[in-house]
Amino acid sequence: MAIAPVIVGTAAALGMGGLHWGRAVLAALVALLLQIGVNYANDYSDGIRGTDEDRVGPLRLVGSGVAKPHEVKMAAFGSLGLAMVAGLVLVILSQQWTLLLVGAGAVLAAWGYTGGKKPYGYLGLGDVFVFVFFGPVATLGTTFTQVGAVDTTAVVGSISTGLIAVALLMANNVRDIPTDAQVGKMTLAVRLGDRNARISYVVMLALSMALTLCLVPDNPWMLLMLLQAPFILLPSWIMLKGRTREALIPVLQQTGMLNLGFSLLFAAAVLLNTL
């Protein structure tokens, strides 16, 4: 989820004639460290609240007792701190100083997802923030640090990859509806209900592909995005038909790979159009 928007944003920069590999690598580093940081922060905050006591899926450090809460908290702060350092270097190289505010917002959002007195992840706003930061912010920020501007290709790509990121979060939260509702974690999946949340997952994946086809008049190679259609079917089928919480676990990996595949196809379409 962290790498995909950087690939899309870098591809857009290539299409605009301003690719900078060094800045692309720094953007990827920032995105990865932020994702690692938010995962540690989520592990810590959910763990001390007792949200992960009856968890189905990958092991959680605090909830399982494998690590002490303060150790996981320090790991979160360390990752977010390194992300800030890498982000500062990227801003200095690109001279896009307004992105300092965006970076600060990303760090605050990473902690505020499940941390603090009123975590927005418990209010059903996690999906909005994931879309914003794993979609437009990461993608357009990557493009902007390389060419100092964005175009329609970058915007469409950012929305599409953001939708896939939200779909992954939705799959995760559908799996956790019973335990989240019990502890008062009112995610969007809890608010929508099991059936509607599953349908929203399929809609988001379909829309992510359909939006890119709007770019076909200017770039016929965007028809390559249709190649991902078969790979949308399997996780969508599992989401609609899987009845146990355990059955939904493979969907997380499948959706992550789908986003990576999307970004590579998108980059290929832009590259071929520039040749």
From TrEMBL:
- One of the record's GO molecular function terms: 1,4-dihydroxy-2-naphthoate polyprenyltransferase activity
Enzyme nomenclature, EC number: 2.5.1.74
- InterPro entries from the UniProt entry: MenA (IPR004657), UbiA_prenyltransferase (IPR000537), UbiA_sf (IPR044878), UBIAD1 (IPR026046)
- Can you say where in the cell this protein is located? Cell membrane; Membrane
Q: Which Pfam families match?
A: UbiA (PF01040)
Pathway annotation: Quinol/quinone metabolism; menaquinone biosynthesis; menaquinol from 1,4-dihydroxy-2-naphthoate: step 1/2
Membrane topology of the entry:
Multi-pass membrane protein
Coiled coil spans? none
Q: Which domain of life is it from?
A: Bacteria
Q: Which UniProt keywords apply?
A: Cell membrane, Membrane, Menaquinone biosynthesis, Transferase, Transmembrane, Transmembrane helix
- List membrane-spanning regions: 20-41, 74-93, 99-116, 128-149, 155-174, 195-215, 221-240, 247-272
Q: Which reaction does it catalyse?
A: an all-trans-polyprenyl diphosphate + 1,4-dihydroxy-2-naphthoate + H(+) = a 2-demethylmenaquinol + CO2 + diphosphate
| Chief place of localization | membrane
NCBIfam families cross-referenced by the UniProt entry:
menA (TIGR00751), PRK06080.1-3 (NF004751)
Family, per the entry?
Belongs to the MenA family. Type 1 subfamily.
Enumerate the HAMAP family for this protein. Answer: MenA_1
Describe the task this protein carries out.
Answer: Conversion of 1,4-dihydroxy-2-naphthoate (DHNA) to demethylmenaquinone (DMK).
Query: Would you tell me the protein name for this molecule?
Result: 1,4-dihydroxy-2-naphthoate octaprenyltransferase
Q: What is the lineage of its organism?
A: Bacteria, Bacillati, Actinomycetota, Actinomycetes, Micrococcales
